[in-house]
Amino acid sequence: MDQANAFNGPALYVEVVVEVETARIPQPFTYSVPAALRETVDIGSCVLAPFAGRELLGYVVAVRSAPPDGVAVVKDILDCVQVETLFGQELAEVAEWMSHYYHCGRRDALRPMIPKFMASSLKTIVGVSPAVREIIAYSRLLNAGKPVQLFFETERETVTNVLHGLPMKVSPKQKLILQALTEHPDGIELHALTAQLGVQRVTDTLKRLQERGLVTIVKSIVAPQVQPKKRKAYRFVRRPGEEEAATLKITEKQAAVLRELERLRRLDFGRAKPVLQTELRWRLDVSTSPMDALVEKGLLEAVTLEVRRDPWPTSGKATSHRQLSPDQETAYQAVCSSVEGNHADRFLLHGVTASGKTEVYLQSIQAALDMGRQSIVLVPEISLTSQVMDIFQSRFGGRVAVLHSALSDGERYDEWRRIRRGEAGVIVGARSGIFAPAPDAALIILDEEHESSYKQDQTPRYHARAVAARRAKSANATLVLGSATPSVESFYLAEQGRLKLLTMPTRIDDRPLPPVEVVDQRQEFAEGRGLFSGRLEEAICRRLARKEQIILFLNRRGFSSSLLCRDCGFTAKCPNCSVSLTYHAPQGTHKPYLQCHHCDWRQPAPTRCPQCAGDRIRTFGMGTEKVEIETARLFPDARILRLDRDTTSRKDAHRRILTKFRNEDADILIGTQMVAKGLDFPRVTLVGVVAADTGLNQPDFRAAERSFQVLTQVSGRAGRADLPGEVIVQTFNPDHYSVVAAQKHDYERFYREEIVYRRELLYPPFSYLANVIATAEHPNVAEGAVNAAAEAFRTVAAGGPVQILGPVAAPIAKLKNHYRRHVLLKAPDAAALSHVLDDALARLDDKVKDILTLDVEPQSMM
Predict the structure, then answer these.
(1) Which of 51, 123, 169, 237 has the fewest Cβ atoms surrounding its Cβ within 10 A?
(2) pLDDT, tens digit, for every residue of 625-642?
């Protein structure tokens, strides 16, 4: 449609989610689109819209030809802020589903789909009016430069106000604002003003002051801070003849530039593509002078090229499809058939460790690429991204894009745009990668689908697995959930036929699963052993002698779990959280310190007890630092690496550590659950689980499941190639069913025992849960809010199937200096749970709702 027809075309209406301060305002709102904007506005557009006397930014989530029934008055949007849309209809539908399922505002549901580096913002500058500025200047003159006190502080200033025709009375709040503005003669941003005043809402007061001519309010749209990276380049125009070259005085260096550009043009079948200035300088070892001179002579053309900030340069090593085993072939054919048939099938790929799930993913993705469509691959941890990216790039090269939080804003910006434009056929990312703006996704894969890290712990508290299922439905895409230890919920759905189960029960080339030996630490401690049992210490020595590699696993950071006084029982606790401080003993010149891993509080470690002044204050428990120190003491010639959050805080640290280990520049890798999944090192023949009990006794119904999963996953790191592997598990609970099942590599055995407990206690998959947490700086406020919420839930749920448990103190009763109490809702189906939540929350006062956090499908009760 041309512009003239657009002006005379049919009316257009849009549903807009407006950027307002509170999520309690029902969204979206309907606006009409002026004729001049009808060719520009679409789903995903950022627009400027009038709202309650203000102008706010918002995002279009639907386009319609008529307003909804009952909507009589519709205002026009004012402008379309960005040409590039930020999401399409598919993600708009997912956001709408998320807002209902997770009971969050539409604005919150859209937030993960609108990267900060792509979003425009509205800047509001507030300042005093010109007349008030004159008063300020005159007042300073009268008061010899002393701080200005406006409005009736002195008789002289009162006279000044009257002379300027200004109002003679202002309210206390207006006076407070005006006084603050006198400190900023050039104006101040609205959010900075509210922060300075310590208040949240000043909009109405500012509007009244503006109407009275006392302040000015200027709004401007700020474009995204990250922009395309551009570099100078040169395009070959022509090569002069000998006579012209002499006339133009072509130097040898200029001639070399022309020859190189002409050579590149011939290699590119005669197309004169621009070549970056930096590349030419590198190729010819020349300055920019010859190139600029050739531009002046009309032989080259200077242009500006957009350059990609590549977060993961390809290694150059390409791999091809591998021959599939019969089990792999069966799984691949099922997935491929679904992809090629555009079916929204959902598969659970249950394959033991090293059974070749990744190769099934790769060949299924190739099927999607052959159709010209995209695939999204999620991994649970950034630590896995390095290995996954190396594998996927070796197969698909530059068609792979990566999205995760460790990238710079510029790198994420470039990757996001490649995905949005369809230039990247394979998108690899962590949890938030499910919101990648892929316009034509045919396949969505969640590797290690059981991982709790797929659950977002901030609003919107979504689970990537559930969002992936919903997105696959909207996109008519195939969903594959892969794991050696599927979540109980997913395996139950497969048993019920709601997921199609694909199994791969053996390793590639029929390699055996490593034998697992369980060591009873009770007996070892009775015999005076330390961190390592005699059996584990002996096994490490044997591997070091054979130049093989070892992984030691402990799911706890730090040197030890706490500091304990043996005289009075004092334990160092965080002043902000109801948890013990973790003791860290860094190597080198740094002194030992205590740290809270929830709020990051730190303090020097005391050498005497702060409570009784005794000197028998000792560390209690252990962490990866302590294991590292003890390993170095026992095996002084071993090359040791540690992989945990403390060693991987810097960008690309995961990749550097794992690459070093893969290149056999280290003998022993010590780590938390970062080393438990997805890693494939051919020379690892021993895995030692230093303490299998760290998560077994957590106050969480998933504790046994998580323990089984991590033991099975870390055991799977051994013996993945030609060298046979062995696993040694040290535990104080050798008879626990999760430990016994992990020793046998027997998922079904664990599942059959676990599902009995879940059924008896009505935990998922036999129920749907919502955890409602009240958080406040004062314990009485948190208790009052959670009690009010529980009463509302009980009133609405009376006589129905929804159970209300609590309220009680949360397992971590104080976190980051806020007190926490919670109430748990348990329902037989999602609809019943949603009904109680919606009706009960509608009954609560806004002040109560402001301190409540609602977590649907909680993965942790802590």
Answers:
(1) 169
(2) 888 888 999 999 999 998
